[in-house]
Design goal:
The protein is of the alpha/beta class. It contains 22 helices and 10 strands.
């Protein structure tokens, strides 16, 4: 997701070309306005200049701009926006609008980012960098046609822009044009073979095509290049490229069935400090997938050697025998679904419909060719095992649907799905007995797969009475309905290629219904199998039916970062 910055040298010159004060010019100025200054030193120097209260207008705007650059290096986009906004108030210019737009982009606020890039283009001549960055924002919105148009303009103005070729290739890949994507990314590599980012993106293309050895080779070269030097552009947070390289190579190793090397790469990902949202998302994925590949590499009980068995001896004169090969990967599935319905709760209010809801949705998905893992009324152990087994197998799927019906709760702003044996006891942590929704989302976060997550789990908070009975001293806030996922909060975005849908809006309560199915799941099961209906159009029909059925009491909610049109039922 490479971003670019413009006109840095001009802004530095603006500050020091005016009559300046000795301390600011000679001691603090170079630290504040040199793009190679470490982030903390840059922020400190700029802050001290601001505290001197000797600059005004355009000169003060420049100092705020450079402090925003320092915050950007640290991945603190809220402070980037604050300083950039003050700089714009004092003296609007292209570079500052571009910087603030890039910060909004990193926060996932693509509409505001596009507005800033538009304003930047109004303030000066057409600039290839700003067209490139606006293309990124269009791509973030999922409008790959407009993204490609902006990348085209950027490339026309600067035919040697490796990153514009790379990002245009990413948009082409999202539209299913793998040949066009590969051609663009190959051109990016030819233009600058020292850049690791295009190699990382080519890793993903090889993985889509099932060419895992090429994917691993490209990932290895990207990691080598990322270790050799820091990113060439200060808009790229430190270590983000290296973390991405390790994560993509790990996914390739895992797809190949080489769990030992995948485990090593996931551990390497987690060992590196992350300052930006993308790197933190990669680390969340690495944490979940590390536990999955660790489980996959353990021998099953029937494969374990007898305690009395003697270890095999290598023939005399030979080195130690090579370790056994990694298990062969399962056949790459096309479309897979995990369906869970929990209603027979032992210690909280039972729900009559989730088991029926789960069976209805599972049948609809089987009818259109999905391989379905289905569970009804699962306790925590069974639910955790089924979820982990599915996440492990889903690494080789092209389209994944996860559907859950039953009790769900938000605790301190995080969402949890509730097994049927949940019981809150004095002295126990409330969330220990639940399944963290963020864990499921992190385990599925992978740009080469389409993920559809659907939760009919927004009933009234089932834990309220138990929370009250054990006291509130643990500072736990459990609320009705579900919260917008933390991966949709400030500083992060929903993983590329993912759609998440709730039976009702965040913080609102959905109805269990009076019939055999809830209003939401009944509508979902009816429309899932409609041939030729794009998934977001399908959810629009579901929403309209639920609103009508419930007389406006319930409005289903969804958020999408899908990279193209997705059809669950063939046209």
């Amino acid at each position: 997701m490479h971003r670019l910055l413009v006109a840095l040298c001009l802004l530095a010159a603006t500050l020091w070309s005016a009559p300046a004060f000795a301390q600011a010019r000679n001691q603090l100025g170079p630290l504040c306005t040199t793009d190679t200054t470490p982030a903390d030193q840059m922020i400190d120097a700029c802050s001290k200049i601001i505290a001197l209260k000797v600059f005004k207008g355009e000169q003060l705007a420049t100092v705020h701009f450079w402090r925003a650059v320092g915050w950007n290096k640290k991945g603190d986009y809220a402070k980037v926006i604050t300083d950039a906004t003050e700089a714009i108030r004092l003296q609007p210019n292209q570079a500052t609008y571009n910087l603030r737009g890039s910060a909004y982009y990193d926060r996932g606020e693509y509409e505001i980012a596009i507005t800033d890039f538009d304003d930047a283009l109004k303030l000066g001549p057409p600039d290839s960098t700003i067209f490139h960055n606006r293309g990124n924002a269009w791509r973030g919105k999922g409008d790959h046609g407009k993204a490609i148009a902006d990348y085209d303009t950027s490339i026309k103005a600067n035919p040697k822009s490796a990153f514009s070729y790379q990002n245009r290739g990413i948009s082409k890949e999202a539209l299913g044009d793998l040949d066009g994507a590969l051609a663009d990314i190959n051109q990016a590599i030819r233009l600058d073979p020292t850049l690791p980012q295009p190699l990382i993106n080519r890793t993903a293309i090889w993985r889509v095509r099932g060419d895992y050895d090429r994917a691993i080779a490209d990932g290895s070269e990207a990691i080598r290049l990322a270790k050799e030097k820091q990113p060439v552009n200060i808009m790229t947070p430190p270590n983000s490229v290296l973390i991405s390289g390790y994560t993509h190579r790990a996914l390739a190793y895992e797809a190949k069935g080489d769990y030992a090397h995948a485990s090593d790469d996931y551990k390497a990902t987690l060992a590196i400090g992350a300052s930006d949202a993308g790197s933190k998302a990669n680390q969340a994925t690495a944490k979940v997938r590390l536990s999955l590949v660790t489980d996959a590499s353990l021998p099953s009980p029937r494969d374990a050697p007898s305690p009395a068995a003697e270890p095999a001896q290598a023939p005399a004169g030979q080195a130690d025998a090579a370790p056994p090969p990694s298990p062969a990967p399962a056949a790459r599935g096309t479309r897979m679904a995990l369906i869970i319905g929990n209603g027979a709760y032992a210690h909280v209010k039972a729900l009559p419909n989730p088991s029926n809801d789960a069976r209805a949705v599972a049948k609809s998905l089987r009818d259109i060719g999905f391989t379905v893992s289905e569970g009804v009324d699962l306790d925590r152990t069974a639910m955790q095992k089924m979820t982990r087994d599915f996440l492990r197998e889903a690494a080789r799927a092209q389209v994944v649907v996860v559907y859950y019906a039953g009790h769900g709760v938000q605790v301190d702003g995080r969402n949890y799905l509730i097994p049927v044996d949940v019981e809150l006891k004095p002295g126990a942590r409330m969330t220990d007995a639940m399944i963290d929704m963020d864990t499921i989302m992190a385990g599925l976060d992978d740009q080469v797969r389409t993920n559809i997550l659907i939760f009919d789990a927004c009933r009234n908070n089932p834990m309220a009475q138990q929370v009250a009975s054990v006291g509130t001293s643990r500072a736990i806030e459990a609320a009705s309905g579900l919260a917008a996922p933390t991966s949709l909060g400030s500083g992060a975005t929903l993983g590329a290629g993912t759609l998440i849908a709730f039976a009702t809006a965040p913080g609102q309560v959905a109805l269990d219904g009076e019939g055999a199915n809830s209003p939401f799941s009944a509508a979902l099961a009816r429309h899932l199998g409609t041939p030729g209906l794009e998934v977001q159009q399908m959810l629009t029909r579901v929403r309209a039916e639920v609103v009508s059925t419930t007389k406006n009491k319930q409005v289903p909610w969804s958020n999408s970062s899908l990279l193209g049109e997705v059809y669950l039922a063939e046209k």
